[in-house]
Write a structure and sequence with these properties.
Chain A is of the alpha/beta class and 541 residues long. Chain A contains 20 helices and 17 strands. The N and C termini of chain A lie far apart (63 Å). Chain B has 18 helices and 17 strands. Classes of the chains: A alpha/beta (541), B alpha/beta (573).
Amino acid sequence: MRNPSRHLLIPMDPYTLAKGAERVKNALEKALALSKLTDRVRVVETGTIGHHEHGVLLIIYPDGVVYGDLTPDDVPQIVQEHLQGGRVVERLVVRDIKIPPFHPQVYRAEKQVRLVLRNVGLIDPENIEDYIANEGYEAAARALTSMTPQQVLETVKESGIQGRGGAGFPTGVKWSFAAREKAPQKYIVCNADEGEPGTFKDRLILEGDPHSVLEGMLLAGYAVGATKGYVYVRGEYRMSIARMRKAIDQARSKGLLGDNILGSGFSFDMEVREGAGAYICGEETALLESMEGKRGEPRNKPPFPPQAGLWGMPTVVNNVETLANIPLIVKNGAAWYRSFGTPTCPGTKVFTLVGNVVLPGLIEVPMGITLREVIFDIGRGIPKGRNFLFAQTGGTTGGILAAGELDVPMAYDTLRQVGSGLGSGALLVVDDSNCVVDLVQNFVEFFNHESCGKCTLCREGTGRLLELLNRLTSGQAEARDIDLIRRLAVNMKRAAFCGLGQAAPTPILGALDRFEEIFREHAEAHYCRSGVCPMNAQKAA
Amino acid sequence: MATVIVDGIQVEVPDNATILEAAKLAKKEIPTLCYHPDLPAIGACRICVVEVEGEPLLKTACNTNVRDGMRIRTISPAIREARQTALELILSRHPQKCNECVRNGTCELQALASRIHVGEISFPYRQRPGSPDVSSGAVGRDPSKCVLCRRCVQVCEVIQSVGAIAVQGRGYDAWIDTPFSRALSEVGCVYCGQCVDRCPVGALFEVSHVERVWRALQDPEIHVVVQTAPAVRAAIGEEFGLPPGTLVTGQMVAALRRLGFDKVFDTDFTADLTIMEEGHELIGRLRDGGVLPMLTSCSPGWINFIEHFYPDLLPHLSSCKSPQQMFGALAKTYYAQKAGIDPSKIFVVSVMPCTAKKAEAARPEMKDSGYQDVDAVLTTREAARMMKEAGIDLSKLEPEDYDLPLGVSTGAGVIFGVTGGVMEAALRTVYEVVTGKKLEKIDILPVRGMEGIREAEIELDGLRVRAAVAHGLANARKLMDKIVSGQADYHFIEIMACPGGCLSGGGQPYPTTPEIRQKRAQALYEADRLLPLRKSHENPVIQELYREFLGKPNSHKAHELLHTHYTPKPVYG
């Protein structure tokens, strides 16, 4: 098939597969064969388009029509009426999902800017040709053939990109630490052990465009002098693992991985490693311990991984989203990248917008956008006429923002000033039908479950915080419990061993600072104004 | 060198110094709990937090290195609150049954709580998971008392390369346990007790023989003899407030006599005997093309280790029993005959620096006298506890002499207690036996010291005997791997399970540190230097023993009573 007249995109991700995407696709191929259209259209299995509330989707290019909630029975009608007859099947059209133009340079729609997600949902992630056709591996080719490692490193440094895993450390600076180490072996590790509740952006990037991450790692390897890369993927992410493995095989067969890539003399190869379910292994040094076959627990720092990481060798650990940005930065230059976002925080950020919004899903926005724009423009506001109570930016360890903070620009520096951060990229919107104490109890339950147990403050602190919050939500608390919660949280933040223990208090303190009266009602009057907390029930410790 | 300022006091420290070390130079003792000078600092307990200017978060002093110009505060409201909170959280998971605990008075948590007062504990007590286990008969565990400092896990893994215990579970429900919660006797534990020695609380302890010794002492029908291992005399004084390295041989003898032992004998005597047997075994192996290198066999932790982890190398082990077991076998035969006492009425007690000795004495093959050769084994700590209970302050007693005949020994016997000592003692004798010449330089310095593995060569009538010494089982493992891979061209290797040798065995007074080990070693070498006889074969009672009873070294009778065999054992089983 040389020039198909139409592309039919079917997002294939765990969610749509559960809704029957595979059966719809089979029905489609059967109907196309019956109608003798097989040679004239191309069916592309893509990653997610970012929204899940419309079930199985079929996107028809270049028509720009999105069909949703499809069953196999709907397919013959689409083939006959739309593909053959040229009439859109109105009853199946989804109107609140706007799709980007085909082969976008940069896709901008509804305040979104899709750099990282440039290909996600639009190309077949299991086909390297699709990635290459969309300018994939151009950056790698240019870097390896006409740039020095130092130039690649400088470009990334100048771009100002900060690590998208949560801490926001400047990526170029991290790379330069590893680049200047002299060692027989260096490593690039992609941290895809995404574990924050409500966060699934890395999964969708890996499922939708694994080659962008692979190319980012290749460029990182070239810049710092590493010849081996590992993608450490959360074990439950079966599709991410499968697609990443396939991408590696394809890249290797094209000579984009292996020895002497593109005749440049640079060699780089990659492997996928599967995590085994511990949240703490998303912490970069615990991840390295886990890769070495040890119990996943954080290491003392310094030395930092760029000095002594995997098996004691200089190691760059970067998040999936960070790496997916790299090919664009290298291809288009630092100045181009800095045209997005804010001067102190360039680029875009991928979020999973979840909770009480009309249109949740995967979004990518320029840094500096306000929470109000995200919730009320992109997310279309709060459903069922409820009121906004608070938002949590950055996953379970993220801070709490109340209604008065809706206009704070979303960037690392500005959010830090209000005690929050971008964290893992989850953006939870909570309306006033919820109880803040109940939600904080829920967060702490998670931390308590995921604390590795190495340091006193996190191990015992999370356990005691959970006991105290259980007292609050079950009507057994005393007034002094609020002070105990605050004391534990403050001291964990100041003195816990690693990021988990230091960040776990963030939502607790954020909520206490903004909603202390609600906490006091629970502690002193045994009253939950939202009616969520079962104040007379015995909650298990 | 780096210049750092600790609470306003400027100190010069090496670049790789930690804040803890810098503070010490500034005469500030930062409180610690999980930190131990022998082990990698892991910063788990969060007690040693300090403020570093320019750092937003508190830093742990134990594992944060200094920077030039660093300004450190070791006490502030934030530091106090963090320490108190961490300590309160630890105490809230600790049973606080201090009066029932064997560590009452030596507990580091108790000391910490007395230094950092937390007041009323705000959280209800919650017991940690895990079940007590005393099945090994040597090392006992009570996980409910554990503070999760992980010293035990680290010493087992890093210093001993055994890995019998590790952190299990996660977070609030984490605890230290064996693989699959098996009994300690089923996971390759060698009972060295180094974990016991590092444990800050009573979560690890020796399985006590105190009561059975009291019973024997108070039974008029029973003739109770006690033997004291070489290393005990260099350490037991610490239990009575004497500085480490105080040699209290005669006072210890006096104290034991006052406890009611009928005879106070010396394991150093059978250490001399071990040299005779083992030295001649080595000469035999060298002459007859026996299995080489020959490995020493007096450290029971080491025996357990090789049986579990290198069973194929068992033919390398000397067949000699340890001095403790040689003593037991002779006490109920030679001594019984000589003293005219029915051996069934003799009760042999050992005072040992060691927990593994308890398991060694209980081995089924250790009854060549016709009875269990050794009836009870007290650690140095247990012996001191009995003395204290009886109101005996060893430090205030006049020195007394050991009883005859099993109390006579040479300097070669006493240095058994320090790493390299068995090697040095053996070479002193082997040299003179083989060459017929007098050894002029008795101090064989290359085998001394605290290097993990040391090597020496000695010329014996044209044969250059190559010797190696290792202490700490991780070092032993390195040598065993060399033997396995055929890279070891030694003739004779001394292995001690514990770092420094018996002087820092798992039964010695708390605490152990590199400095304390150094001082105890100096005391043992001093004891050697002061003795008139310093070679085992010159011990007149040993000579008499061979004349009267055993015949000659490695005789049939000697083999019956003084030699043993070893059994390959699975790590898990």
